[in-house]
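Let's practice the habit of predicting before peeking. Look at the sequence and jot down your guess about where helices and strands might fall. Then scroll down.
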Amino acid sequence: MVRDAGIVGAILAGGASTRMGRDKALVPVAGRPMVEWVAEALAPVCAEVIVVGRAEPVAGLRAVPDPGLPHRGPLSGLVAAFQASGGRPVLLVATDQPWVRTTTLRHLAERVGDLAAVPVVDGVRQTTCAAYPAALSDLAADELDGDGSIQTVLDVAAFDPVTDREWRAWGEDGRSFFGADDPEAIEEGLRRWGPPGQPPM
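Done guessing? Here is the structure:
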């Protein structure tokens, strides 16, 4: 069981939400805050689910502030998650990905080992829906100190790319990687897939 492996689910919720115009974590999608949809998808896979980039709990989840200055991007949240994980791997998802699927997260959690398991969509690494081994924690912290990003971490470290052929074999249709970072994107997600939590057609 993945739960016994002790992977930590970390929801990135530290951004400024400038496109949304309000706190993205609490924006409702199909009647529920986005962060709740993400937490629900992570819960069956993870030993613990936390929110990173926050000083106060959100939706009943333990909050872990970003290290240093706020709003420094997803890498800051990953470093915070590593610091809170007690040496466990981290399954990272952005709060604005409410259509993320538990099945996809389970496959990523099972796949992470010495290397990060990172889906690739049209040549783009999906760094905010990926599993990262604790062995990357020092490199991630160094890259953060150097104003890097998760992408620059993966430029330096070897990682396990999950190709579209592989993630489609999981029944994934791309919804897990869809970012609803503004109201128009939420409407697009609802039009394409309906409410979060629905199985692919």
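How did you do? The longest strand covers residues 116-121.
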